[in-house]
Specification:
By secondary structure, this protein is of the alpha/beta class. It has two domains: 3-256, Rossmann fold (3-Layer(aba) Sandwich); 284-476, Pyruvate-ferredoxin oxidoreductase, PFOR, domain III (Pyruvate-ferredoxin Oxidoreductase, domain 3, 3-Layer(aba) Sandwich), CATH 3.40.920.10. It is built from 17 helices and 13 strands. The chain has helices at 3-8, 36-51, 85-95, 107-113, 115-124, 164-167, 173-178, 194-212, 227-230, 237-245, 273-279, 311-324, 371-377, 410-417, 423-434, 440-450, 454-476, and strands at 57-61, 76-79, 100-106, 129-134, 185-190, 218-223, 252-256, 298-305, 328-334, 344-351, 365-368, 386-390, 404-408. It has a seven-stranded mixed beta sheet with strand order 2-1-3-4-6-5-7, sandwiched between helices. Strands 9-10-8-11-12-13 form a six-stranded mixed beta sheet, with helices on both faces. α12 runs parallel beside α15 and α12 crosses α16. The longest helix has 23 residues, at 454-476. It binds thiamine diphosphate, iron/sulfur cluster (SF4) and magnesium ion. Residues 31-32, 35, 37, 65, 135, 139-140, 226-229 line the site of iron/sulfur cluster (SF4).
């Protein structure tokens, strides 16, 4: 094998074809030419291959340019909310200590929105390896300042250059993490040229090896180029890093206690559902869930509409209502990549039993607040299910066999109650009125939680009452 073949060979821990990647090109990554992420992916994949750990590894991809890391790595993958990789990795490792966790994070992800998560995960010494890709900018969103942006560096949000008095100094994560007691290994490397790539390979492998050997938390901060964000050509990467980045971010191993540590072993606490319910005070018999006296073991609800209609809040209020009735609940928001005017939705599951998945494929109840969401979700309503649609906006009554369809003039009713914005609460009321087992006290307490201000509470109470009366009328015919 020639040196060039060696360099371009994909390790077995990377998919040979990137089938998960949309579009015709399944060979190349989605990264810009000269981006550091691609190099770092390959280094991690090679280390996984060499250590033989891919089948036990769960790689957590962040929000940022590497949000699609799961296109590439042939191991367990989870994509998580911005900054939350260490929190999710904590959940995975605590529930299955045999897994090896990689928390792959950018500087916006780890050092801005996710600062608390990383500090606490490190401080707890969670069994995970963090690869912190510091390219001193928010690459994905078009080049805004990150906590690691250099003094004087021009970004979309620091057009005159970062100023320490305005925006603070570049945050030195590796140094910060290294002073905590729990981490076993903390290093900073770079991938701006071949020599540094080789050093990074060593550090990456060492950190993963430490985890394979059960040693605990390790973090490798990797300085990476983002030529698009830095507004330079890929050819200028190395010079830019040497001149601007290295004087600020020192390379090296800040902590290496791998050899001295015995390793982390945590006992798992288990509890039965009955024990949990007892601890939460939810074991009493009065918590029954039988909407309209039909016993649902699991009721899936989809609430959908456009941004600003309070769709997510409606889902949260329904979830809280479920909790007040002692049910297991999940709430899963989906903002989607749709254009303005499209749909946002959330799925709510109310269940007597523990919930395996928060995904609602066939809702027993669909609340459609605008036309596009009705069109999208109507075919998915479960046979025998209920569709409540916002007849103030959707003029044409939908048609579907085998389900109950009810148009609610939600916006008009909300306007009468004081504001059109309370249309979501009108719908909540209709749900409560239709399914007669959601008690009025629980409804009121949910509203009080969401609207602590008196005048808003009064307005929303009017909207709720109007909705409840409407729902009850639908149910009883009077
Ligand atoms: C909760 C949330 N807030 C903000 C955003 C917008 N956002 C997407 S990527 C990003 C910054 C990512 O920067 P970084 O972690 O440095 O990754 P890079 O793209 O540079 O690799 C932000 C702020 C989001 N998607 N979600
Ligand atoms: S914007 Fe920067 S970090 Fe994102 S893919 Fe392009 S070069 Fe890489
Ligand atoms: Mg970045």
């Amino acid at each position: 094998m020639t040196l060039m073949e060696k360099i371009i060979k994909k390790p077995s821990t990377m998919y040979a074809q990137f089938e998960r990647k949309p579009g015709a090109d399944k060979e190349n990554t989605h990264y810009c030419p000269g981006c550091g992420h691609g190099i770092i992916h390959k280094i991690i994949a090679e280390a996984m291959e060499e250590l033989g750990i891919a089948d036990r590894t769960v790689l957590i991809s962040p929000v940022g340019c590497s949000v699609f890391a799961y296109y590439y790595f042939d191991c367990g993958n989870i994509q998580v909310a911005h900054g939350r990789a260490p929190a999710v990795a904590t959940g995975v490792t605590r529930s299955n200590a045999d897994n090896l966790l990689i928390s792959y994070q950018g500087d916006g992800d780890l050092a801005a929105i996710g600062t608390a998560e990383i500090i606490h995960a490190a401080n707890r010494g969670e069994k995970m390896t963090v690869f912190f890709v510091n390219n001193s900018i928010y690459g994905m969103t078009g080049g805004q300042m990150a906590p690691t942006t250099l003094i004087g560096q021009k970004t979309a949000t620091t057009p005159f250059g970062r100023n320490a008095l305005n925006e603070g100094n570049p945050m030195k994560i590796a140094e910060m993490i290294s002073i905590l007691d729990s981490p076993v290994y903390v290093a900073r490397t770079s991938v701006h040229d071949i020599r540094h790539i080789m050093q990074t390979r060593k550090a990456v492998k060492k950190a993963l090896q430490a985890q394979r050997d059960g040693k605990g938390f390790a973090l490798v901060e990797i300085l990476a180029p983002c030529p698009s964000g830095w507004k330079i050509s890929p050819q200028q990467n190395a010079e830019w890093v040497e001149k601007n980045v290295l004087p600020v971010f020192a390379l090296g191993e800040f902590k290496d206690e791998i050899a001295q540590r015995d390793g982390v072993s945590r006992a798992r606490t288990t509890a039965t559902q009955a024990e949990l319910l007892a601890v939460l005070g939810l074991d009493s018999e009065e918590h029954v869930f039988s909407p309209r006296n039909e016993v649902f073991s699991r009721m899936g609800i989809l609430s959908a509409g456009f941004g600003g209609q309070g769709i997510m809040m409606l889902g949260q209020m329904l979830s809280l209502l479920g909790m007040r009735h002692g049910l297991s609940v999940t709430w899963l928001p989906s903002y989607g990549p749709e254009m303005r005017g499209g749909t946002a939705n959330c799925s709510v599951v109310l269940s007597r039993d523990p919930i395996g998945s928060p995904v609602v494929e066939s809702p027993e109840l669909l609340i459609a607040m605008n036309g596009p969401s009705l069109e999208k979700f109507l075919p998915r309503v479960a046979p025998g299910g209920l569709l409540l649609y916002n007849a103030s906006i959707i003029e044409q009554a939908p048609v579907r066999e085998g389900i109950t369809i009810v148009g609610v003039p939600a916006a008009e009713m909300a306007r009468e109650a004081g504001s059109e914005r309370a249309a979501n609460v009108v719908m909540l009321g209709v749900v409560a009125g239709w399914y007669d087992s959601f008690g009025p006290e629980a409804m009121q307490s949910v509203l009080a939680d969401f609207f602590p201000k008196k005048d808003l509470l009064a307005l929303n109470t009017r909207a709720l009452d109007a909705g409840m009366a409407w729902g009850k009328k639908m149910r009883t015919g009077q």
